[in-house]
Amino acid sequence: MPRFQSSPDLEMHFQVDDFTDPWTKPQTILMLHGNAESGLAWYAWVPKLARQFHVVRPDMRGFGQSTPMPRDHKWTLDELTEDFCRLMDHLGIARFHLLGAKIGGTIARAFAARRPERLITLTVVGTPPPTRLEAAAGLPGLLRGFEEHSVEHWARQNMASRLGGAFPPEGHEWWCQFMGRTAVSTQLSFMPTIAVADIRADLPKIACPTLVITTQDSGLGSVDVTRAWQEQIPDSELVVLPGNSYHVAATHADQAAEATLDFIARRGRP
Fold first, then answer.
1. Dihedrals φ, ψ of 5, to 5°?
2. What is the pLDDT of residue 133?
3. I need a labelling partner for 38 at 20 to 30 A (CA). Which of 44, 98, 132, 185 fits?
4. Cα angle at 87 between 85 and 90, to 5 degrees?
5. How far apart are CA 41 and CA 38, in angstroms?
6. Contact 239, 261 (CB under 8 A)
7. How far apart are CA 150 and CA 260, in angstroms?
8. Angle, vertex CA 3, rays to CA 180 and CA 178, nearest 5
């Protein structure tokens, strides 16, 4: 399994997928997963993307097979950005396309604003608004829930909204168990920091072409709310898919991947 010692406190697990023709020189896509997930969350995207691109799927610090974080870890968006920059330096990749789902989209927007020289395009799929006051207000009860129950218990409570009304029951169960493998210590330090990070100041600084994908009735915000912050990104487009899930990368993997490939073909080729 590929692992990289990103910093003294982090051994990062990552997966590389590349099914491009061996005589070509493909561009790279870096994929950032959501909260309580890992790079495995992108499983349905890989067959579509990896035929054309060199695809890198890391497990963010604290999640998946990367080093769990202690409950007193001081998370910052800059730290996460540097984790991923160090990984791409390790792989010898200077510039790349960046994809982020859910909280991965929050991190990806901050990354794009703070390290613009690294990116060709940005795509965010089913990602929260740039500030989450309601989520921050509910943190004390949420943290008690992690300590008294489990991460899986939390995932089960919100999975219906996460995956919407059309996802199969077997899929709901898989996602509950998948997210439930996350260390409680990671969640206790991640939720009050990155999960409610305020990135409003980052949006106007995003310089690369950007695609925002949502659904018609996403629980993370209406189409109007999403469009309002999307339009603060100077060179951006919005795609709205039918449905009521907010984990769009899971529930609309094929459609969202096709929209991403189309966007990159139009805006991200040399």
1. -80, 90
2. 76
3. 132
4. 110
5. 6
6. no
7. 34
8. 15
Report residue 110: phi and psi, to 5°.
-65, -40
**Per-residue confidence (pLDDT) for residue 141, from 0 to 100:** 85
Q: What interhelical angle do 151-163 and 139-148 show, nearest 10?
A: 130
Which DSSP string do the residues of 60-78 spell out, in sequence order? PTTSTTSPPPPTT----HH
Residue 242, pLDDT score: 96
> Cα(70)–Cα(117) distance, rounded to whole angstroms?
32
**Contact yes or no for 96/88 (Cβ under 8 A):** yes
Q: What confidence score (pLDDT) does residue 269 get?
A: 73
Residue 39 dihedral angles phi and psi, to the nearest 5°: -60, -20
Phi, psi of 210 (to 5 degrees): -130, 135
Alpha carbons 207 and 172: distance in angstroms, whole number: 37
pLDDT digits (tens, 9 = 90+) for 47-62: 999 999 999 999 999 9
Q: Is-contact 139 191, C-beta < 8 A? A: yes
Distances (CA, A) of 258 to 150, 189, 253, 263: 35, 35, 8, 9
Closest of 219, 215, 211 to residue 161, by C-alpha: 219
Return the sign of the alpha-carbon dihedral for residues 219, 188, 195, 61: negative
The whole model's pTM is what? 0.96
Domain 3-267 in CATH 1.10.10.10? The answer is no
Q: Are 156 and 176 in contact (CB under 8 A)?
A: yes
Characterize the bridge pairing of strands 10-17 and 54-58.
Answer: antiparallel
Which helix (H) or strand (E) element contains residue 124? strand 119-125
What is the CA angle 85-52-103, rounded to 5?
45
Weakly modelled stretches of the chain, pLDDT under 50: none
Measured between its terminal Cα atoms, the distance across the chain in Å is 32
